[in-house]
Amino acid sequence: xxxxxxxxxxxxxxxxxxxxxxxxxxxxxxxxxxxxxxxxxxxxxxxxxxxxxxxxxxxxxxxxxxxxxxxxxxxxxxxxxxxxxxxxxxxxxxxxxxxxxxxxxxxxxxxxxxxxxxxxxxxxxxxxxxxxxxxxxxxxxxxxxxxxxxxxxxxxxxxxxxxxxxxxxxxxxxxxxxxxxxxxxxxxxxxxxxxxxxxxxxxxxxxxxxxxxxxx
Length: 216
Known about the structure:
Elements: E1 10-17, E2 20-28, E3 32-37, E4 46-52, E5 57-63, H1 65-86, H2 96-123, H3 131-144, H4 161-167, H5 169-172, H6 181-184, E6 191-200, E7 209-215
Antiparallel strand pairs: 1-2, 2-3, 4-5, 6-7
């Protein structure tokens, strides 16, 4: 866009990427405003009022449709920026492509968390995860899902730190949390190992005891 164009001037370029039309619009307000959209473009244009210093009055200037849509939903954009500011990928890169990838990865995680909360609200589940806990559980699930366990062996395990803590559960307070559901049900490298002492079953609403535990 040229510098001497009048206020309200706009340009639009449309490209097709993977059979999806992408509209790039630049609009001259006080400064050039650039927007990129996959569902709305510049047309049909509307008008907005701005104060004209030379005329000392408010005048109507052209305004692209995408600007109207952005202003109508900018509260969601600000909220998204707030969520990204709280928890975001801290890795840095000199390549703009990697920075863009990290941003979209954060965007995908936050959108997943929002959908997770909506689904649980519909189901009436009041035990919702905050964003930080959701990111931790998501990372743990993606790291373990479908992968074999390191050093998993059949038979009675040696006296490891994890084993000792499980045996001492009744002296240490509440039981350890069970693994995430996606990890428990991935059907990959789950081994039944024998314990020296019984421990309470972790299945919900089960008050029994067992000599076995699943190791992965």
